[in-house]
Design a protein that fits this description.
By secondary structure, the chain is an alpha/beta fold. It is built from 15 helices and 11 strands.
Length: 340
């Protein structure tokens, strides 16, 4: 049976995680909620998809996070002519001094800790799919040989809204491998004023400290011991099951607007992200509020809506909000029944 973390075990991890958040907020202004969710994704060992228009700071966020966490960082700019070998690596025929030739593997940029796949939806589906095995198995197979990627390994991808010209929507199988999809909006007036008043040419300050590999591993170990109570895990299971039209948990809105619901990977992602969010909030046990905080980023890219949803102006965000309200009403009724 899992034991609940004691204060002397969890407090150093909470302090370190909050220091990282404070540094992110100091270096990149006006994005506190986004920073908390991104760090939640990292502690969950998940991949993150950042969507927003060019110039809103997606690349700066990923690079700053890599610097703070002491992770090896590489960036790949996705373009229509990018090939899978440009990401994974390739075999090159090499000769030695004796005249013998052999195929030698040259690793691609995917062999790193933190890979920024910049504007991932500008590459062709063939190139996008090159990351599937790397994201799921943390390995790359070429010419029958499987090579493990460094540990830890994260893909943080940026994507422009697909209404822009020259973009290819990511396939559902690849979207499902992203723990979160987070929208990065523009800065407000106060943030813009602070940037132009305090930062010449937009240059951000350097981190004041860097997390060591040992400290990061300790964060992962503490996060793994955050306790998930049975009622909360049941709550997660019902939320994910309710996205399927053939489920008894499905609401009339789901049956009307959803073509395909979330996979079991979504339930796993929600549980892990809720654990990490609880850690950042200083709690050794996952609560319902932690699940509610991560439901939208976990589900918003996993629900495939039908044409009726587009016609009625229903998107995944509004549908998830309705699902949460429906589940809260159901939980409330159960509590009243049990209290009688």
């Amino acid at each position: 049976m899992q034991t609940i973390l004691q204060p002397e075990e969890i407090n150093p991890a909470i302090e370190l995680a909050n220091r990282v958040l404070a540094q992110l907020d100091r270096i990149l202004l006006g994005r506190s909620e986004l920073h908390r969710l991104v760090l939640t994704g990292i502690l969950s060992r998940g991949h993150i998809l950042l969507e927003g228009l060019p110039g809103v700071g997606k690349t700066a966020l990923v690079k700053t996070l890599g610097d703070l966490l002491g992770l090896q960082f590489k960036r790949v700019q996705f373009t229509p002519d990018l090939m899978p070998s440009d990401i994974l690596g390739t075999h090159i025929l090499q000769g030695d001094s004796d005249g013998r030739r052999a195929m030698e593997f040259h690793a691609g940029p995917v062999f790193t800790n933190l890979l920024l796949a910049d504007e991932i939806n500008r590459a062709s589906p063939k190139t996008q799919s090159a990351l599937l095995e790397a994201m799921q198995e943390r390995a790359v197979t070429l010419l029958g040989a499987t090579r493990q990627l460094p540990d830890p390994f994260f893909v943080l991808a940026s994507q422009n809204p697909i209404e822009l010209e020259g973009t290819y929507p990511l396939p559902e199988a690849q979207l499902d491998r992203f723990l979160f999809k987070l929208n990065v909006g523009g800065a407000d007036v106060e943030t813009l004023d602070q940037i132009i008043s305090t930062r010449r040419r937009g240059e951000a300050p350097q981190p004041e400290f860097i997390v060591s590999a040992e400290q990061l591993q300790q964060l992962f170990e503490v996060m793994d011991r955050i306790y998930l109570p049975k009622p909360v895990s049941r709550y997660i299971s019902r939320l994910v099951a309710s996205t399927h039209t053939d489920s008894p948990e499905a609401t009339e809105e789901v049956k009307s607007y959803v073509a395909y619901g979330a996979s079991p990977r979504a339930a796993i992602a929600m549980a892990e992200a809720a654990r990490a969010f609880a850690l950042l909030a200083g709690r050794p046990t996952v609560g319902f509020e932690d699940v509610k905080a991560v439901v939208a980023p976990v589900l918003n890219h996993r629900l495939v809506l039908n044409y009726k949803a587009k016609f009625d102006g229903v998107d995944s965000t509004s549908l998830i909000a309705r699902l949460l309200r429906s589940e809260e009403r159901r939980v409330g009724k159960e509590c009243l029944r049990l209290c009688r």
